[in-house]
Amino acid sequence: KHLSSSSFLTLEAKAAFIFVLILFLVLGLLIVRCFRILLDPYRSMPSSTWTDYMEKDTFDYRIA
């Protein structure tokens, strides 16, 4: 009986370790993604968000 309880504890510890490992992997991916956005914000941004402003600017220049 003592052997089965100890093996259950190791199984529980393995499950907890795998769960924590997955959490750290997700956290690491999020940190890398945030640093990429901070270092190069224009590449990660969809092109439509800033080409619209450029088109509006050229349109304003055409009016002026």
Automatic annotation (TrEMBL):
Annotated keywords: Membrane, Transmembrane, Transmembrane helix
Organism ancestry: Eukaryota, Metazoa, Chordata, Craniata, Vertebrata
GO CC, one annotated term: membrane
Membrane as UniProt keyword: yes
Name of the protein in question: Cortexin 3
DNA damage is among the record's keywords: no
Compartment(s): Membrane
First-listed, main subcellular location of the protein, grouped into a coarse class: membrane
Coiled coil: none
Bilayer topology: Single-pass membrane protein
Bilayer-spanning residue ranges: 15-35
Organism listed in the record: Hucho hucho (huchen)
Entry-linked Pfam families: Cortexin
Region forming the signal peptide: none
